[in-house]
Amino acid sequence: MARATLCYTCSMADLMIDIEGLGTGPDTTILTIAAQSFDPLDTGYHERHYYARIDLESQQARSIQQGTIDWWATQPTAARDEAFNEQDRIPLDQALDELAKFIWQSRLIWANGPTYDMNIIEHAYKSYNKPIPWQFYVVRDSRTIYSLWPELPRPATSHHALEDCRRQIDMLQATLKHLDVKELK
User: For 179, which of 22, 60, 61, 157 is 20 to 30 Å away at the CA?
Assistant: First the structure.
């Protein structure tokens, strides 16, 4: 997906969020943001998704860690090309506004370890004096769910934020099905 895309076709559903960035701290520079709507107790995902490449020039006050730059240099060409492609980037504040509209339509917000993705996104909202578009109690950690099924098959991470959202959804749904979970609150 070359441009920021937003698709609305489903009502209140859960949302998986993933970002790619240039560091690990809350103020890291964000390369891409993705969000995918889904039902954790079903299979697959809905059409409703968001994906944006973020303009690096719009993030002058955010940090870049050399160790993360070095790590990106070791990633597959396709992952680097997607993360660093200069085409169709939008300013971070625009992406945050678009993402907020998407988040408000969601029930639970999942991330593969919310201390990375959610902390970075929350810091970004705060740096623009924008309201956080979720309540603290709706954030869920999919990695903790995966740990409940140690034999869970784990496909490789692509480091394309939207593809990784979908991979994480597949693993979450498989784990919940394996554990025979019938309801989430």
Answer: 157
Look at residues 30, 159, 155, 29 and name the one whose alpha carbon lies nearest to residue 82. 159
Alpha carbon distance 169, 173 (integer Å) = 6
Q: Where are the domains of the chain?
A: 5-178
Find tokens 């997607």 and name the residue. 82
Phi-psi region of 88 (alpha: psi -120 to 50; beta: other; left: phi over 0): left
Q: What is the CATH number of domain 5-178?
A: 3.30.420.10
Is a pLDDT exceeding 60 seen at residue 7? no
b/e per residue 25-56 (b: at least 16 CB within 10 A): ebbbbbbbbbbbbbbbeeeebbebbbbbbbbb
pTM over 0.85: yes
Residues in Cβ contact with 28 at an 8 Å cutoff, skipping those fewer than 6 apart = 21, 22, 62, 63, 64, 65, 68, 120
**175: confidence class by pLDDT, cuts 50, 70, 90:** very high
Question: Are 72 and 28 spatial neighbours (Cβ–Cβ below 8 Å)?
Answer: no
How far is it, in rounded angstroms, from Cα 36 to Cα 108? 12
**The token pair that represents 74 in the structure block:** 């070791």
